[in-house]
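FAQ
Q: What does a multi-component entry look like?
A: The components come first, one per line:
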Amino acid sequence: MDTKNTLSRRLLVRVAPWVLPASLLVLWELIVATGLVSSHLLPAPTTVLEAGLHLALSGELWEHMVVSTGRAATGFAIGAGAGLLLGLLTGLSRWHELFLDSSMQMIRNIPHLALIPLVILWFGIDESAKIFLVALGTIFPVYINTYHGIKNVDGNLIEMARNYGLSGWALFRHAILPGALPSILVGIRFSLGLMWLTLIVAETISATAGIGYMAMNAREFLQTDIVIFAILTYALLGKLADLSARRLEYHWLKWHPAFQPL
Amino acid sequence: MINNSLTGLGLHLEGLQKHFGSRPILRDFDLAIPAGQFVAIVGRSGCGKSTLLRLLSGLDPAFDGRIKTDGEQTLATVKNQVRLMFQDARLLPWKSVLENVCLGLPQSQRKHALEALAAVGLEDRAHDWPARLSGGQRQRIALARALVHRPRLLLLDEPLGALDALTRIEMQQLIETLWQQHGFTVILVTHDISEAVAVADRVILMEDGGIGLDLPIGQARPRVRHNAALAALENLILDRVLRPEPAHRKGKLSNPEHQAPESLAYPLPGHMPTTLLSTT
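Then the predicted structure of the entire assembly, as tokens:
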């Protein structure tokens, strides 16, 4: 392949994911500009951007963002950490599996957002309520994928590694964990999605700061542009979280034929 | 090259018994293997040859009977002098070729990994992922991984079964060469009788968990493949393997006219390849 060809191909690879969102934005702007939809219900993208710029310049946006990100990160660290630990335990030990797995599968089937009334009773509208909900939302995807990842590591490879003298921590580090890693990372990506979802719901119900609070506050004053900007901010934060998870995948799964650069 | 002339491990198997459920796999199995011998074990599927290898490698510790080495040691005490090569290469896909060869190797001996790769002719692939290698190359890496531990007993569980005919011959020659250099004992389980006859000092045919035939191959090395003497030995073993089979099949396979030596490694229409034995 000559250089020009690869250059245009690389450009195409970069541009392709943005074609659809960009055309949707143009369509949106056109719909509002032609008066097809009232700008009170759906402000034009430029209006939303203007509102966002205003919030950013006043510093209000960053305060809310820091609060929301802090809650999300804390809840995720607790939830995903616990999920990873429990998944490792049940995946590696038959006794832990017997003892824990059926309970985990039972709790998993409760929609964690259904617990909101109970959580408000227990924690009030404190920070811990939101962190608890995020942790509960992120624990299960990591747990299940870690558990299955370990169960699905090729038994032949483990037999080989044992035969070559590996056991205990070395066996885990060299043979089991890397084999389970693709699955664990899938769980982490799922969890990151649920992390924002849970936080949005928790923040719109009871909060005095955060992106969700910002949106609910704007609703009171019929500032539709800020409401939409808040939603877009969530989308952006979610995308950032997913992007960092993909970075991890490409970094840790370099060996995997499915993660070769395009 | 991996230097150090290592002496092979001699083995004495006495009264080995192994059952899977109520089905006996090994029945009162006795075998003595002198140090440095190249032994090939052939037989039908389910005759117990792979089970025997698993017992010897320590993968399956539950059996009756005794396995002793020359020095009257038990198998457990010489475990790190025994290395097993599996039917598939079993390389860890998340480790580079070099890291795979280093698996389980003490820090002080890691420098020998490159030498082992050179011995199988793949030192230039040291930093590739295993997924980028061909089947034959992966088995050569697996061989290097076994050799770097300087085993005194090398167990080969049909390691060439999945390779194409040409690669298989190359691998047989490589294993033979390395065996001659290092002098370890080799036990090769295979269902390719022409392979067994071509590389081994001694071919053992296993039948129903016991020894059906114990045949020394006195041919000088390097051997000319498919010469008349080897072909005769091969036919002898084939005849024995196929004896209890239905008459029509026996007649077809053991008839010398259909067993032209050239046909053994390269199955041609009208010639039954000997490598299909255990799949029948």
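Q: Is there any commentary attached?
A: Sometimes. For this entry: The interface with chain B takes residues 156-157, 159-161, 163-166, 174-175, 178-179, 181, 253-257 of chain A (CB under 8 Å).
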